[in-house]
Amino acid sequence: MIALAGITFTFVMVFGGYLLAGGKLGIILKSLPFEMMMIGGAAIGAFAVGNTFASVKQTGKDTLKVFKGSQWKAEDYNQLLQVLYQLIHLARKNPVGLEAHIDNPHDSDIFSQFPKLLKDHTALDIICDTLRSASMNYDDPIQVEELLDKKIDETKHHLEHSVHGLQSIADGLPALGIVAAVLGVIKTMGSIDQPPEVLGKLIGGALVGTFLGVFLAYCLVAPFALKVKAAADDDINFYRTIKEVFVSHLHQHPPKMCLEVARQAIPHQFRPAFATLDEALRTLKTNG
């Protein structure tokens, strides 16, 4: 994983360079637990004060995206387009038969082809609500597109809440490092009558707080926020793909053209090849 490799590389370069320059890890390791307790504890506590329990829990969960990336992969987009193709084809051929699928998606033989989709309530709601509204003659493409944009923007705002939370922690960590350093200086001033070698270690321990605050902010937490935002953007593209298919469908384009418009809008790293998707659709027709 690139994230894990990047973290390892950062630690090796920073502390390796320190050791090669003649530095000693002893004073850092001795002060680290106490400095980490003050800085990390204050950061977590302040974040908890400014957020709800659900937000704190969601931020912790979203941090895993640093290592896992977006929940949607290239194969998921391929499967999504196949499911949407079957739904819009059925909507035109047998609107009454479509109702059973959108009213009870968990019992639908179309949705069951993509179990991962059934676990995402946002995607499921967008699909079912849009098809249900179209069946009730709310089928103006411009109005539907505006409505879907609002839903997607709301989801984007929710997904990026963790990003803002992590960035706020990153912004505060250097200042919290100074707080810990000041406490270290206060401790040192209480031992001002000690010999220079003792004072030197105490001052060095105090400076560990400043180092730790800056290091955590710019080498870990801020990059984590960027990676979570990138994963959130990728997740949003999945919902935009659904929107593109339905808007094209309401413009009365042929089902395959609806899929092609959406396919071309998918980011290149997730975009299924035309031939791959076309072969999958041919298989669906054969099985159908």
UniProtKB/TrEMBL annotation:
Record has Repeat as a keyword: no
Membrane topology: Multi-pass membrane protein
Family: Belongs to the MotA family.
NCBIfam families assigned: MotA1
Species the sequence originates in: Marivita cryptomonadis
Subcellular location: Cell inner membrane
Spans through the membrane: 37-56, 172-190, 202-226
Protein name: Flagellar motor stator protein MotA
Any one Gene Ontology BP term: proton transmembrane transport
Domain Motility protein A N-terminal, first and last residues per copy: 5-94
